[in-house]
Amino acid sequence: MSLRTLLFGRALRSEEQEEQKIGPLRGIAVLGLDALASASYGPEAALTILLGLGAASIRYVGPIIAVIVAVLLIVYLSYRQTIAAYPGGGGSYTVARENLGPFAGLVAASALAIDYVLNAAVAISAGVGAIISALPALQPYTLALCLAILAVMTVVNLRGVRESGVVFMAPTAAFVGCLGLTLAVGVVRSVLSGGAPVPVVPPAPLVAGVAGGASLWLLLHAFANGCTAMTGVEAVSNGVPLFKEPTIRNARLALTLIIAILTLLLGAIAYLSSVYHVGATPPGRAGYQSVLSQVVAAVMGRGTFYYVTLASIVAVLSFSANTSFAGFPRLCRVLALDEYLPAELAHLGRRLVYSQGVLILSFLSGLLLVIFGGVTDHLIPLFAVGAFLAFTMSQLGMVVHWGRVGGPHAFRSRLLNATGAAATGATLVVVVVSKFMEGAWITFLAVPVLVSLFHLVRRNYRRIEEETEVSGPLQLDNPPPPVVVIPLKRLDRVARKSIRLAISISPDVHVVQVRADEPNMGDLPGEWRRIVEEPCSRAGYAPPRLVVLRSSYRQFIRPLTAYVRQVARENPHRYVAVVVPEVVERRWYHLLLHSHRPALLKAYLFLKGGPRVIVINAPWYLRDTEDDRPASPGDPGRRVAGIRPR
User: Fold this and answer.
1) Is there a contact between 519 and 557 (Cβ–Cβ < 8 Å)?
2) How many CA atoms are closer than 13 Å to the CA of 538, on its beta-carbon side?
3) How high does pLDDT run on average in the chain?
């Protein structure tokens, strides 16, 4: 078994694509981990902003989370309609493009792409933050742990959607089970104690804060940070085609389960943070503990269950990046089909996933982790802008959709989507204003940059299509054979194979030797008549012409290209075919031992050769069995491509 098969599994046939689709429960693991995991860093992000209030911060976490849950439920109801209206997937991009126009679609696509990349980075860094909460000695290795988890995520997703769902089902169940049990026990103890439970392990002490209450601006800022708990909600509508039949029903059920679990988690975490007096600790510093770590320790202690629960939280936080790995490649595919991204991104890989999109997401997320040191709090300010911009564009698009298609429930649906657009639009304004100077301006500027990039890609495809489009029958006005040019250093077996190829396709062959003071340069003029001209004449072929070029500045590619262009000018109605001899090793590491001049020559000829210059590879594989023995009299190769011996 090869290493490739061991890591990524066997190649899947196209007919197996239906078998790779998922049901609603597996859909939670594939598309819902982002939303579920955001319960762990959403409340903490809000409490981090309120650090300056000290003990007074826990007073505000409940109302803030309540508002976030209200917006979340509005968005949920809106996306249920989106799933039914656009079962082909594409989410915000498809809805905005079809109802608000191409430009609005690209804005939504840009927002979605930014959201997916940031989600992958934030999810992994939050998972590592949870690890460091349990094992503070690992803090110096924050970035290394982030990149290691990213590598694992990349390999798992390259193995296929179904397999990633299998891998993530167990940690998802452990996360919901362990955290759900912890929160349930904590709520029961709080109720039985009259709202003043005694923590098993006291949380980090809350220092005295500033006098007075929180300002409206501070509360809006905390709300904006806490809204990261809503990210990932759109993933199901983007990935509807991933579900088995009945597709719409399964996708809606998966979304409902995700939102129900998330709502319960957010409410319970906010409540227990208040009654157990759990606040945020400064991120990225010694002694840091996540809010969930403190809550679990306060309710259940720091025994075996604590570490099992923290392990499940770490796993789900880290694996919540899978939502991006499932959604980002499919977004790239839709954009590629519309010619806004390279066509390669629309092609399925060997495991029936869009491998190129997976690799691009992995690279961009890794770059963000390196730039920000893997610290969640440094990434949070960039995070929610893309998500809420995508939410808003999708809801506005659905308002137009219902006005266009009508129907018995159109007014009610339109009102619901309008309410969703207003709620997410207002939240977007709060997020942008409150986080602008903290780094949100980067996301704000990235959207028009991406839109411009998409337009440039499409313009390039349109230009190519205009230049290559043609109609009518193929024109064949007795085309003459090409002029063939072969660059040679010496008459070895590699060169002889190229000469035999050249004379089989044209009677006009130019063999060019560039004398550039190189070692092992053969004496072509001295050997030419005996080795080349006489055998060709005896066989009835026109002997190739030998051309020797002197290179005063020890260059090879430029003098040869200049000669090729000169031949093209002298033969304005013929193609010029440059045959490039090349030694090919069968092991990749052997490439380090050989010159890469043939590859450079081909690249230069593609760019500078001209419209009538054609490049032909003439590879010689080491241990090749081909030799110089003459063909037998009946060999049909003596009349290849219509060239007859003289």
Assistant:
1) no
2) 9
3) 84
Measured distance CA(368)–CA(362) in Å, rounded? 10
The C-alpha atoms of residue 375 and residue 290 are separated, in whole angstroms, by 12
What would the DSSP string read from start to end of 119-139? HHHHHHHHHHHHHHHH-GGGG
Q: Look at the block and give the residue holding tokens 């998802």.
A: 172
Please name every residue paired with 511 in a beta bridge, in sequence order, or none if there are none: 486, 546
* Size of the chain, expressed as the number of residues it contains: 646
The rounded distance, in Å, linking the Cα atoms of 577 and 225 is 62
Alpha-carbon gap, residue 452 to 162, rounded angstroms = 35
pLDDT at 645: 42
Under a CB-based contact definition with an 8 Å cutoff, are residues 323 and 32 in contact? yes
In which residue are the tokens 């309609």 written?
81
Looking only at the bridges linking them, the beta strands covering 613-621 and 576-584 are: parallel
- 82-96, 271-285, 559-573: range with highest mean pLDDT: 559-573
From 279, 284, 278, 281, select the one nearest 132 (Cα to Cα). 284
- E strand residue ranges, 413-524: 483-487, 509-515
Give SS3 for 619: strand
Which run of H or of E encompasses 39? helix 33-49
Pairing relationship of beta strands 509-515 and 576-584 according to DSSP bridges: unpaired
Asked if residues 454 and 345 have their Cβ atoms less than 8 Å apart, the reply is no
pLDDT digits (tens, 9 = 90+) for 45-61: 888 888 878 777 888 88
Residue-wise pLDDT for 320-362, tens only, equals 888 888 889 989 988 999 999 998 898 888 777 888 999 999 9
* Structure token pair of residue 468: 């290559």
Type and span of the H or E element at 449: helix 440-468
Average pLDDT estimate for 107-133:
83
**Alpha-carbon gap, residue 108 to 473, rounded angstroms:** 43
211 has pLDDT over 90: no
Is the distance from CB of 258 to CB of 250 less than 8 angstroms?
no
pLDDT, residue 413, reads 86
- Distance from C-alpha of 401 to C-alpha of 3, rounded to nearest angstrom: 49
Which residue in this structure is represented by tokens 């991120």? 283
Both tokens of residue 56? 């007074």
CA dihedral 10→16→17→20, nearest 10 degrees, is -70
CA distance 346 to 234: 21
Which of 132 and 144 is assigned the larger pLDDT? Answer: 144
CB-side neighbour CA atoms (13 Å) of 275: 22
Structural contact between residues 505 and 481, judged by C-beta atoms closer than 8 angstroms: yes
Contacts of 291 (CB under 8 A, 6+ apart): 40, 43, 44, 47, 269, 273, 278, 279, 280
Scored b (16 or more CB within 10 A) or e, 257-266 reads bbbebbbbbb
φ and ψ of 37, to 5 deg: -70, -25
Consecutive H or E run containing 308: helix 304-319
In a 3-state reduction of DSSP, which class is residue 281? coil
Helix (H) or strand (E) holding 581: strand 576-584
CB atoms within 10 A of CB 207: 11
pLDDT in tens, 72-89: 898 888 888 888 888 877
Show the tokens assigned to 424.
Answer: 């997410």
On whether the CB atoms of residues 394 and 91 are closer than 8 A, the answer is: yes
Q: 277 pLDDT exceeds 80?
A: yes
